[in-house]
């Protein structure tokens, strides 16, 4: 449960040695009809201790998304946790916690250098919940990429309220080619209900300034919150079209176990199924509201 690194490593060691594994902290297991939980979630305080993942064990050419343009592509996570309180976001609520913990710029650059020079990676996605939380860290990473001549395209996930023209210019110079923004709605009242903690105006400004810096924009929206109506959904679609980002993604807000959003949906009786195979966020809705049926 939660961050799996330490628990999985210890579990593997126990299994390999043929010793008892039922007291490994951070695991849950079935014992007959019961589910037993052992210890609390383990969070790694210093991410610099993590080894570089064994990327060489997989064919990176086979793991791509529609927005990727330079193969092979690799995904890195350079920080964990997010201090913000978006009600639907499972990462900080169920795995990483709300305390932001970064890798050092040096550790990030070491992994990038390995991917580029040893494995020939040409594009890297930084899949942090909030890559640019520490501006100075981003500047140090950009400086290192430029200084080490690491010729690779990269794309982070960012909050639209935390980027600016100067930061975007420096990121582009260091190889940033695309930024994903979690916009979610074009209606301020809906953003406030989901606790996004930024303004609709921030989304528009970030989109324009990112494009002006010659960086592609991937704007992500979700349609069908309980605070939505047909009218707010139309406004969000119109807003996304007016922004005209290079890529725009629409998903369905899906309540996931352990999140505040699941508590909201369950308590109001809006959850339609607990068949987890249907909880994709794209293929179908698992909620239904009187004013907005599934």
Write the layout of secondary structure elements.
Elements: H1 5-17, E1 27-31, E2 34-38, E3 73-76, E4 79-80, H2 90-96, E5 101-102, H3 105-119, E6 123-126, H4 135-147, E7 153-158, H5 165-173, E8 178-184, H6 188-193, H7 200-212, E9 216-222, H8 230-243, E10 247-251, H9 260-267
Parallel strand pairs: 3-6, 6-7, 7-8, 8-9, 9-10
Antiparallel strand pairs: 1-2, 4-5
Radius of gyration: 21 Å
Helical fraction equals: 25-40%
Which residue ranges are poorly predicted, with pLDDT under 50 across at least 5 consecutive positions? none
Helix/strand order, N-terminal first: HEEEEHEHEHEHEHHEHEH
Please list the strands of the largest sheet in the order they lie side by side. Answer: 3-6-7-8-9-10
Mean pLDDT: 95
Q: Helix- and strand-based class?
A: alpha/beta
Shape: globular
Instruction: Tell me the β content.
Output: 15-25%
Instruction: Report how far the terminal alpha carbons are from each other.
Output: 31 Å
Total count of helical runs of at least 4 residues: 9
- Compute the number of strand runs: 10
Characterize the biggest β-sheet: 6 strands, parallel
